[in-house]
Amino acid sequence: MSYPKDFLWGGATAAYQCEGAWNEDGKGLGEWDVFCHESPLNINHVTGDVSCDFYHKYKEYIDLMAAEKCNTYRFSISWARIIPNGVGEVNQKGIDFYNRVIDYCLEKGLEPNVTLFHYDLPQKIALKDGFANRENIDAFVEYAKVCFKAFGDRVKLWVTINEPKYYAYCSNVVGNYPPNHKQDFERYFNVVYNEALATARVVKAYRDMKLDGKIGVVHDNSNVDVAPYAKERELIKLRGDMFYNSLTLDTALKGMIPSSLILFLREMGVDSSFMKFEDAIDFANGKVDFLGLNVYNRFYLTDFSEGETEIYHNNLGAKSKMKEGIKLKNMFESANDPTTKRNLWGREIYPKCMYDTLKEIKENYGDIPIYITENGHGQYETPDENGYVDDQDRIDMMNGYIEYMYKAMEEGCNVKGYYAWSPMDLYSWVNGYEKRYGLIRVDFDDPNLKLIPKKSYYWFKDVIENYQNNLADK
Ligand code: BGP
């Protein structure tokens, strides 16, 4: 059994969700700035303009993480803060900010784990069709190189893209994320493909710079479980994996596109001309060093029944009864397991998916090092009169996932770290601020954004200390 001594414990955030300072110190406009300010589809009518004000209060947050005994912090860089127009001139003040954050993490004993892209395109790149346009891959590689040059001496863990599939899915299928295309499956696959290519090219660029860190990609765990009553079990499993997983995982971990992708795209009626023969070389040269997995839920599927394609998504929480899922015409559809709890946004809470996905990845892709780059629980919260939140539900839920992570590790899965989503309450895409994930409460009504550790903060500290004490006993 492998309980690594250098296991990383920490929390994860993303730039747009916590930094605020949306137009300070030369930052360019991002697509989420524009969406939140202007789009009628921003249904909860809030923005990330200030959010946790991490830009100014980073020391306070990092101090709290250090006191929680974390030894790592995962965060993302805002592309538009570094290169305001997406290409061209570099904003030195943006570089300075991330230098301050990285240096302070290191001073406090937190290994920085840095994501280059977490949903937030510079608006200028979004206007040129974002990752749907191959030309923007070059822009992304150039931006990555600027980051490697500026921070690569101190950052030893890099992530190219956070959740290429989920980002493409929300932006092009659900339509709740900018640029809000709905059920555009061609664009969905095109974007996932270009993100895979972007990952491969950035990995190659990183290696060419001869820096001594590791680089990976973060996939949102999407392990497919087929309902026991489904008639076409194997076919559904295959199709589900092709739809959710294989393009990201095969390219990043095997260095090749999945062999049955073209056939699957044909079945889906998707024109595959965005794929180029010569990309094979980039994929082969761009395999990642590690895989990040954001573990929240599985995809529980059964046979397609009838009717047209439908997407079920809930950004209204308790104001809606919608259960998250999909009906993909002639392919498969979501099954409902009445014994599995759901959160108030209609998503399954299914801790065992942690174990299932780790085992499945080991079986299909071998012993690549894995970091659980996100795991957490979104809920409404009411603090007591002192601002303290007794979030026992979150503790129970995360504990369940961590127990399954240990079980998988005991069975030989190569897990190297775990990041709670999230260290503190922050902006939850489209859902706003009511859906809270933090182990620290942020009082968004207080002009000073008072921070109050929740019960889960102390629980997480115990988890980390217990892990370390158990190691010492061995
Ligand atoms: C992941 C994202 C995070 C975070 C989390 C919770 O998919 O990487 O950025 O937001 O999910 O999701 P949500 O805020 O939509 O509830």
Describe this entry's structure for a reader.
The protein contains 16 helices and 15 strands. α3 (54-67) runs parallel beside α5, α8 (164-174) runs antiparallel to α9 and α14 (352-365) packs parallel to α15. The longest helix has 24 residues, at 185-208. By secondary structure, it is an alpha/beta fold. It is globular. An eight-stranded parallel β-barrel has the order 1-2-3-4-5-7-12-13, surrounded by five helices. It starts with 7 loop residues before the first strand and ends with a helix. The mean pLDDT is 97. It has one domain (8-295, 352-473): TIM Barrel, CATH 3.20.20.80. Bound molecules: 6-O-phosphono-beta-D-galactopyranose.
Compact overview of the structure:
With 474 residues, the protein is of the alpha/beta class.
Question: What general form does the structure show?
Answer: globular
Specify the helix fraction band: 40-55%
Residue ranges: pLDDT <50 for 5 or more in a row?
none
Task: Name the average pLDDT.
Answer: 97
Integer tally of domains: 1
Q: Do you know the CATH architecture?
A: Alpha-Beta Barrel
Describe the sheet with the most strands: 8 strands, parallel, barrel
Oligomer: single chain
- The tally of strands reads 15
Number of helices: 16
CATH topology: TIM Barrel
| Backbone structural class | alpha/beta
- Distinct small-molecule ligands in the complex: 6-O-phosphono-beta-D-galactopyranose
The first-to-last residue Cα distance is 12 Å
* Widest β-sheet, arrangement of strands: 1-2-3-4-5-7-12-13
